[in-house]
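cache lookup: miss for this entity combination. No prior model stored, computing from scratch. Input as submitted by user K.M.:
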Amino acid sequence: MAIVVIGLSHHSAPVALRERFAFEEARVPAVLEMLRNARIAEEAVLLSTCNRVELYAATSTEPPAAFDHLREFLVMAKSYSDPLTDELYTLGEPHSVHHLFKVACGLDSMVLGETEILGQLKKAYDVALQHGHTGSRLNKAFQKAFNVAKQIRTETNIQRGSISVGSVAVELAEKIFSKLADRSVMVIGAGDTSEKAARALLSRGAHQVIVANRSYDKAALLAQELGGRAVRFDDWAEEGENIDIVISSTSAPHYVLDRHKVELLMKKRRNRPLLLIDIAVPRDIEPEVNFLENVFLYNIDDLQSIADDYLKQRQQEVARCELIIREKAAALLAGGIPGPRNAGVRPAFGQ
Amino acid sequence: MPLAPAAVRITLVSVAWFTDRHFFLLSVMLYGLSMVYSIFLWRKGFRRDDYINYLILLCAFGLHTTAMALRGFRLNHCPVTNLYEATAFAMWSIVAVYLIVGLWPRLRFLGAFASPILFAIGVFALMPSLDLEHGARPGAPVAWTSIHAALMALSYGAFGLSSIAALMYLTQEHNLKLHKIKALFALLPSIQRLEFVVGRLLISGFILLTIGLVIGAYDLSRLDHPHSYRGDPKVVWSALVWLIYAGLIVMRWKFAQGGRRFALGAIGSFIFVVLTFWGTNVLSPLHNP
């Protein structure tokens, strides 16, 4: 029996096609039942997320025939009648096992090294296991995949660091303040990035959000969404003592926070540390402010460059991760039941 | 040679053939090993958990404690009777406080910053001319003098560790100001926490210093001619050190001048203490009869 994979992912197909093949959680056990009853595979696990739909199967049918059957099955299950070329990829051993391990470690994800996919994979495996659709072959392979993911998380830097601007802001806050729970965030202006950053800070425990905007209504709206409160734009400085983190993104052509204002703010706050995040272009906060004692100013370029550095670090780790994956896959395949000798017919896109 | 009788005396009362100075030497060697490992940790950007360095310092502490215990048993009181013993005691208290504080994983990297300083002071302490047999102070009761010396050494230990934490603070603050990524991926605590640690250690040191000086003053008053020692360099110096640290505390808490200035103040004050301690000790007829 060999382990094979068939599926499509963000590497091979656009979202319009991926959504056609997505399976609802509730339908998955029935689909796997159909697959096994049709004797196309002895064991199967179905993974369906927003970025990929993949069927992992253990089958004693020879790969070329197995791939045809699986392709037919998927197309029939989703009643898909349009032509398909290489959006649907198929993998035989050992590439199928490599692929499984890579997916578990986040190496095949849109965001390199993301950890959500491991949870999704575990859930998909659990569903298949509970309904009796897995056997010794897939059980061993998936357990090994989870172990490899854990090993890579602890031994390499592939999952470390924040690669989005919002989470970089959170990391900064955690390096400056001892407890995020006591800190207040002020959002001046509005914008997608500032909202994301505020949400990220809130999710990590920030105490409250205060929103200030030239338009009070807009401020109130955003404040409601974030579970905070709104203040009049001209009064934002009155909140002085309450502010520890400021996220600024107004469309003002001049500096909203100049050196003098920040000095006054620091005096009010008795020189406690202050994190200023300036997302606006043109900038809202006078750059000189960074020279003040206990003030830390980051503009959008700084945040982005930290995120880019982290991404670069992750990319440097890919080679090391792939080495570990190949070792573990070889060990798994050597120790398992011998499968058919020929390898995969069509490798996955990007391999 | 004037050193030979002292060396012979020390050797004669050692346990087996290993003297307390041998144990201290071993502990200094381990501080050196810790220093080398710390350079390796620094090069790696403080990314991995520092438990190996903690263990090295723990072993060194064990040997160091053994050395002091042996000396204490031989002398039959707290081993702070000469410069070697006082320095060893101050080092010991730095390591002791570190081992407690280092139980928190985030603060464990203090050890990496502390070990070069410990090694340097240890090498200095091993100089034979520091380890001379001294009689008790002129006419003062030995017990109170020992407590005075022990408290002073403990306070220097607290000041020492606070300046090490201040050094860590300055490193982090520098990286954060200059938007360096190593500010984030290094497993160092937040600067607010480091500032808190510096402050608490400084206050602890100050309290110990105050009590130590009060006991010293009481000790002094029991002498035959206490007023003749009024201009004694060490006494004047101690008052100066007390004023410097009091000033730092006022600056931090009354005038809210925390952060960088406070960290630099803590480091500067300790450097001043380290540079002038032995000189004033030698010049002081009260401490060096």
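stored under new cache key. Chain A touches chain B at residues 157, 160-162, 168, 171-172, 174-178, 270-273, 290, 293-294, 296, 298, 302, 305-306, 309-310 (CB under 8 Å).
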